[in-house]
What we know:
about 375 residues, alpha+beta, Gyrase A, domain 2, 9 helices
Amino acid sequence: MTVAARATPLRAWHLAQGARxxxxxxxxxxxxxxxxxxxxxxxxxxxxxxxxxxxRPLDVSGPQARDFLRYALAxxxxxxxxxxxxxxxxxxxxxxxxxLDDLIVTRRTAREYRLVLNAARAESDTVHLRCLAxxxxxxxxxxxxxxxxxxxGILACQGPMAARQLAAVLDFPELLQRKPFSTLERDxxxxxxxxxTGEDGFEIIxxxxxxxxxxxxLVAAGVKPAGLAARDSLRLEAGLNLYGxxxxxxxxxxxxxxxxxxxxxxxxxEFLGRSALAAERAQGARQALRGLxxxxxxARAGCxxxxxxxxxxxxxxxxxxxxxxxxxxxxxxxxxxxxxxxTVFVSLRGREHVALVVxxxxxxxxxxxxxxxxxxxxxxx
Length: 381
């Protein structure tokens, strides 16, 4: 029997806004509201609103919460010490260094942390963390409390005007003073200056019954509803990985352009996967995630990438037409000795398409990244 996709509290609202709904990670979500390109442009130029309630908050608390998360996560939550409301991007890996998920962890107090998990990994992540907590605690330590929060939903208000519009709607001017990767909590709202678009903005975690009023107020203030299609083109332009494509349990952080999320500085911190990741860092990863700019054509996940001489280099993990750059871009896992600036070939439907290798991101905060801009000029000439 087919299991029905789960619905967020805003399903009826999406339909009323004219959304085309699709299934994604077992959730029914809006693909677009009529025009992916218009929604993409709204986020780049002003502000867009995404329902990301398929992402799952998970609260970890107790006197041992900090020490447990130092063991469970590859980045070190000790970097948040003394900074209530500060957030950290990290990966969670298994013993061999393969990525189980990427996530954001926020320190709420010295003994309370909030994780936000990817939808496709939320259930398995929660089981993993609970099993890990029991194993870690043993007889000498108390296991932290790990609480799922299905009562909460998440909206993302993103774009250069997003913070100003959200602050006006909430009558909360203090939001404008928050720095990236910091949060404020007020009136059951958890407001985090984070996002998945390469633009400024906030992610708002709130009780499910608050989402409708927030969405209506933001749209009335001029924020444009946006769906999964725009979210994908925005995140890829920003060089942000998608779990299940650009990183999987078969890939380490170093193979996924995420080695910077692995903190090995404290030799006393034994976290899960440390030995494997330290060994790979010492030896050097055999593959790396790079950006590709295509002269023509649109690469898709799985497309083979080869050198000028026809030697196999790797394959595309994500690819699409980039509205901001007006050409095809992609992320590809290539041999680590493939140099930036190299000309390579992407196989699309039996034809070889020229591409240039760049270091992602392609676009951040209103303009192409410098290296990308330079490579585009090379293509055009």
